[in-house]
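Field: COMPLEX_INPUT
Field: COMPONENT_COUNT = two
Field: RESIDUE_TOTAL = 362
Field: MODE = joint
Values follow.
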Amino acid sequence: MEHNLPHTIALLSRTPAALGALLRDLPEGWTLGNEGENTWSAFDVVGHLIHAEQTEWIPRAKMVLQFGETRAFESFDRGGHEREIQGRSMGQLLDEFARLRSENLGELSALNLRQEDLDLRGRHPAFGVVTMSQLLATWAAHDLTHLHQISRIMANQYREAVGPWSAYLGVLQCAGHSAPQ
Amino acid sequence: MEHNLPHTIALLSRTPAALGALLRDLPEGWTLGNEGENTWSAFDVVGHLIHAEQTEWIPRAKMVLQFGETRAFESFDRGGHEREIQGRSMGQLLDEFARLRSENLGELSALNLRQEDLDLRGRHPAFGVVTMSQLLATWAAHDLTHLHQISRIMANQYREAVGPWSAYLGVLQCAGHSAPQ
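Field: COMPLEX_OUTPUT
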């Protein structure tokens, strides 16, 4: 489907509750396990979602409005979540993510974007010209890529436990890993 | 990690609320879109989860207890969800999934499995001997494979909308599709 701003907002507004329902008070065997050296746990991913709320979506939308194509977005710091997660619990991260998402959806609403604003152009540091519409669609798809990643990381904790069923579980065959945005 | 029955139950008990938070009242552009001909929408996947609750996990656990390796499980009917979804809304499917899951966790509890029961052996129609432990771990991993699938199906609806960001979104590169259980 084409990008539809109300659909994007509908998804963005649901992700914090969906992650909360899945991850809050879940045993740490699920949430702190990763996929091997230099990979993330579900806990790390929630930290990354917090960091992206702080530095990526609304700041970039404002850059599109203010500078258009003349100035490239700041590069996203893929390790930037590390200070977010230090000494915190999953419950605290989930609360923080929900609070930031709610604030950012408020900011988005306050930008009062008209249909024609979705065609405004900005500049991505790696691949050049992008549109406001693409940026906002990516905000929603980024939630989905990390929900996809969390389910894959957690399934990996049972890779041996499922025995021969591993052949039938697509999540255990997934090689669709994300790069920085 | 090794299979841990309380961890399995913790995950199984959270999935209905997580799917509800994500999918309830979400625009149909997200929930009825699929990945092309002969593929499932998120709506179909919730129907499949209902069908699996009805025919797969607890019935198979009871077969392990009653027949051990002497009798193979019924094959799972991958099209069996079609009568579940006919004429129903996403909200109805989510309610039905939550109700069945809760009943089945009650049945699991009533089986009162001891640690040594997890080593009991049953027979899968395709790959032969499996254990009770593998069956129950697969129940949880099956939730995760379908959460992984739902996030991939929904992200696919924005494949074009994200423009050049598609290169960075792992969910759009995923080829980890599931086979019947």
